[in-house]
Amino acid sequence: LKPETRARQERSALPIGKMAAILRSAMAARGAARMAQAVRPAAFRPAPFHRPTFARFFSDVRFAETHEWFKSEGDSATVGISDFAQGALGEVVYVELPEVGATFKAKETMCTLESVKAVGEVYAPLDLEITEINDKLGDEPALLNSSPESDGWLVKVKYSGDTSSLLDRAAYDKHIESEKKEE
Q: Which residues touch 121 (CB under 8 Å, ≥6 apart)?
């Protein structure tokens, strides 16, 4: 050992050999605790962490063939554009939303989206009245690109009519595939 190391050893309260023994016994105790947990009956083990899934979000979401999503919550709903639509538009730079209280018939244009590639229209999937708009899109239109089917929602509405004309996720995915083949 170097003279400085030996001097430090002599000054320390515990010799290095004694410290090593204490560390070994602490590690052995820690290993024993892990082993005890591993052989614990399943009913007494802590539950493993499970990531939340988003399957439930998509189970009550319907889609129009014009790429709007529609999540109903009783007689009201939230409307936005699909991930496919935002991908086709490209980077959205401006969103023109309707005023609260405005009413639209099914398939009427209710919003306009401007992107670096094109201008896109968003159609009313059913007869509806606007009850709330997503004010965040005025400052951050890119939310439509980063989170089109959650934070990038466009409007909240009261609607009338039957939602059976809208597609579920599986049917919408097939619709997208057929559109891609046509291109």
A: 109, 111, 112, 113
Q: What share of the chain is helix, strand, coil (3-state, %, to 5)?
A: 40, 25, 35
Distance CA 143, CA 7 (A): 63
H or E element, residue 55:
helix 55-59
Could you read off the pLDDT of 132-152 as tens digits, one per residue? 999 999 999 999 999 998 899
What is the per-residue DSSP string for 14-48?
Answer: S-HHHHHHHHHHHHHHHHHHHHHHHTS-GGGSPPP
Cβ(100)–Cβ(130) under 8 Å? yes
Beta carbons of 92 and 142 less than 8 angstroms apart: yes
**90-137 per-position pLDDT tens digit:** 999 999 999 999 999 999 999 999 999 889 999 999 999 999 999 999
Residue 78 phi/psi, 5° resolution?
-115, 140
pTM here is: 0.66
